[in-house]
Design brief:
single chain; alpha/beta; Protein-Tyrosine Phosphatase, Chain A; 7 helices; globular
């Protein structure tokens, strides 16, 4: 009986350790940021980190950079699908993002808004800007809170700040708030 209890306890400890170590791997993804139980953004994960993403319960990966970007995973779409997650690709030009890019991303998210999603690019700059907009416009997160979260990753440059302002204006939302510093970083 003691051997059964010990073996059972060991299995539980291994399961807990595996779960915790999987979560720890998420934090190792470049600029990983969890916004809620169902939405996170990050820079480019490795193939092993995509396995940790799956193990953490993510159901969808949205990639908004180009597949030939430095550090991109060759055939990431196939890797993600083989892991059993949905894959959405909205290629966004770094120095020329468009409102159409954002709305394509938002449309994909709105088809299944409760699906646990990792949004990523190469450094989490594009992704955190889209996450800011999505959270404010579709999840009713206050501008100040969403801006504070984005600031933990970066302060958008002039190009990205203008995109953010244009999308917010389209939706009747002001980017101004207490503590919102929109001073652009240099590229």
């Amino acid at each position: 009986m003691n051997k059964l209890v010990t073996a059972g306890t060991a299995a539980v400890v291994v399961a807990i350790f595996t779960s915790v170590s999987g979560a720890a791997e998420l934090s190792e993804i470049r600029n990983y940021k969890e916004y809620s139980a169902t939405f996170s953004s990050a820079g480019q994960p490795s193939q092993e980190q995509l396995e940790a993403v799956k193990a953490a319960g993510f159901e969808r990966v949205v990639y908004i950079a180009f597949t030939n970007s430095r550090g991109a995973i060759e055939e990431e779409d196939a890797v993600v699908k083989e892991l059993g997650m949905d894959y959405v690709h909205v290629p966004v030009i770094w120095d020329a993002p468009t409102k159409a890019d954002f709305y394509a991303f938002a449309g994909a998210m709105q088809r299944e808004p409760g699906k646990k999603t990792l949004l990523h690019c190469q450094a989490n700059y594009r992704a955190s800007a889209f996450a800011f907009l999505y959270r404010v416009l579709y999840q009713d997160v206050p501008v100040a809170e969403a801006k504070s979260d984005m600031n933990t990753i970066w302060q958008p440059n002039d190009t990205w700040r203008q995109l953010i302002f244009d999308v917010l204006a389209d939706n009747g939302v002001s980017p101004m708030c207490a503590g919102c510093d929109w001073e652009a970083e240099e590229d």
